[in-house]
Amino acid sequence: MSRHVFLTGPPGIGKTTLIQKVTQALKSSDVPIDGFYTEEVKEGGRRRGFDVVTLSGKRGPLSRVSSDSSTSRRECRVGQYVVDVASFEQLVLPVLRNVNQGSDAKKKICVIDEIGKMELFSQAFIQAVRQMLAGSGTVVLGTIPIPKGKPLDLVEEIRSRRDVEVFTVSKENRNNILQDILAAVESCRCPGAGSLQEREETLCIWLTVWF
Q1: Parallel, antiparallel or unpaired: strands 77-78 and 81-83
Q2: Which residues is 4 bridged to in the sheet?
Q3: Is the pTM of this model over 0.90?
Q4: Is residue 178 exposed (0-12), middle (13-18) or buried (19+ Cβ within 10 Å)?
Q5: CA separation for the pair 127, 11 (Å, rounded)
Q6: What are the residues facing 138 on neighbouring strands?
Q7: Which of 37, 81, 101, 182 could form a Cys-Cys staple with 63, CB 3.0–4.6 A?
Q8: Which among 58, 33, 15 is positioned nearest to 139, based on CA atoms?
């Protein structure tokens, strides 16, 4: 039985867009949900970095482009981007730690978009994610990158968990996978609750409200 749902796929394929659609559909039905997603920051049409945006609307820098290639300052870097670990932790950790523990019957959803190289510079974030995955009161709806280069320990740990359902997003399925993701989240949130017909009716209500 799956307890968490993750999306994976190449950069720019639409994982965050799907996360936002699922989030809006759940919010429209008053499902308790919290968390964060990442968003590109552009200046003059060029990407300058990424921000973290919480579902409550708070925003802070995750990374910015730096032309200084010096490594003497022990900066956390991913390619041309310098990661602002302190800003990330200040914004995200309170959200993760304050997610209310729901009952086994009606669990809260926590959005974590994403768990990637930049975010994994934070050991406190890694610990918080592991604790949430091991707990019983929260369903994690997250995103992870596709395998590339050196494996990321936490990402591979998530990918191999038996209680995680992973959806691979592609150009072919990204426009028709939303209902499947919503169904998986609902199954994790209310395991064994209601018949298949009742769940399908709930999904239809969500999708009707959203679209």
Answers
A1: antiparallel
A2: 164
A3: no
A4: buried
A5: 25
A6: 108
A7: 81
A8: 33
Q: What is the pLDDT of residue 210?
A: 47
Tokens 């190449």, residue located: 10
Q: Which tens digit of pLDDT belongs to each residue from 96-147? A: 988 755 555 568 899 999 999 999 999 999 999 999 999 888 999 999 999 8
What integer pLDDT is reported at residue 197 of this predicted model? Answer: 45
The answer to whether 126 touches 96, Cβ cutoff 8 Å, is no
Q: What is the 3-state secondary structure (H, E, C) of the chain?
A: CCCEEEEEECCCCCHHHHHHHHHHHHHHCCCCEEEEEEEEEEECCEEEEEEEEECCCCEEEEEEECCCCCCCCCCCEECCEEECHHHHHHHHHHHHHCCCCCCCCCCEEEEECCCCCCHHHCHHHHHHHHHHHHCCCEEEEEEEECCCCCCCHHHHHHHCCCCEEEEECCCCCCCCCHHHHHHHHHHHHCCCCCCHHHHHHHHHHHHHHHC
20-28: average pLDDT = 94
Strand order, beta sheet including 77-78: 77-78, 81-83, 59-65, 46-54, 33-43, 108-112, 138-145, 4-9, 164-168
